[in-house]
Amino acid sequence: MPTSSRTLKGDSLSLLRAYRTNPDLQTRNRLVHLNIGLVRREAHHWVERCPESYEDLLQVGCLGLIRAIERFDVTKGNAFSSFAIPYIRGEIQHYLRDKSTPIRIPRQWQEIWRRAIKVTQALRVEMGRQPSDRDIAAALNISQAHWQEIKLAHQNREPLSLDCPLGSPEDGSFSLGELVPDHHYRSFQLAQDDQIRLQQALVQLEQRTRDVLEFVFLQDLTQKEAADRLGISVITVSRRVKKGVAALKALMNKA
Predict the structure, then answer these.
(1) Whole-number Å distance between alpha carbons of 113 and 107
(2) 80, 85, 180, 229: which one has the fewest Cβ atoms less than 10 Å from its Cβ?
(3) DSSP letter string over the chain?
(4) If we measure between CA atoms, which residue out of 73, 62, 63 comes closest to residue 19?
């Protein structure tokens, strides 16, 4: 192992021990700085497979790194890098899953769209007005029809808000949501109340059981993935899930 790698590993381990004893913000930030290479590696891997920017992926990956720092147990003797990578990768994957849309746009069109944003800003300054589709297409060196096709694809990609106003002022405007019958409104209201009660119940559980429930239900991990991250067996995870769910039901019924 190169000297620099050994030094980095030693510094990280020393700081991780210090953070376990006294979890202060300064120590955590130093750990993030020392291990940012793990996040960069994952961000570079995913940036070629999605339309999101490298900077966004880096920020999301850092959240996973922080989560790993907070959960790492130095007494188990595991390598921190091996422990942290699944957290970083998982955070990025969850972010990409939440950002995904049903309409897939070709990568070449995504590149043109990103260029078009910069071109439009430059043309607006140069012309003193909003550039037309013809102006933008000429600056991008593509046909106007091609540009309009790309623009339409991105417009259709965005979800339509239920608050979107419809109708004319003369006829009386109303929102799209008013046309959609919502038979689940009351159950949604109840769900909001239940979320508060659930959070209050969760904090009363022991830490390991709470960790298992968070991984399995909040982060959508399999029981095996949760077991690997926590360093316990799948059987233990299964038992903790059953025990935790039963405890939550009991606590919420009392609330």
Answers:
(1) 10
(2) 180
(3) --HHHHHHHHHHHHHHHHHHHS--HHHHHHHHHHTHHHHHHHHHHHHTTSSS-HHHHHHHHHHHHHHHHHH--GGG---HHHHHHHHHHHHHHHHHHHH--SS---HHHHHHHHHHHHHHHHHHHHHSSPPPHHHHHHHHTS-HHHHHHHHHHHHHHSPPPTT-EES-TTT--EEGGGGS--TTHHHHHHHHHHHHHHHHHHTTS-HHHHHHHIIIIIS---HHHHHHHHTS-HHHHHHHHHHHHHHHHHHHHH-
(4) 73
Q: How far apart are CA 212 and CA 14, in angstroms?
A: 27
Strand partners, 166: 174
Tokens of 138: 């000429």
Per-residue pLDDT of the chain (255 residues; tens, 9 = 90+): 444 455 556 678 888 888 888 888 888 889 999 999 999 999 988 887 777 888 889 999 999 999 888 888 888 777 888 888 888 988 888 888 766 554 456 778 878 888 888 888 889 889 888 888 899 999 999 998 888 888 876 665 554 444 544 444 444 444 444 444 444 433 333 344 455 566 667 767 787 888 888 777 766 677 888 888 888 888 888 888 888 888 877 877 765
Give the residue carrying structure tokens 């300064």.
Answer: 26
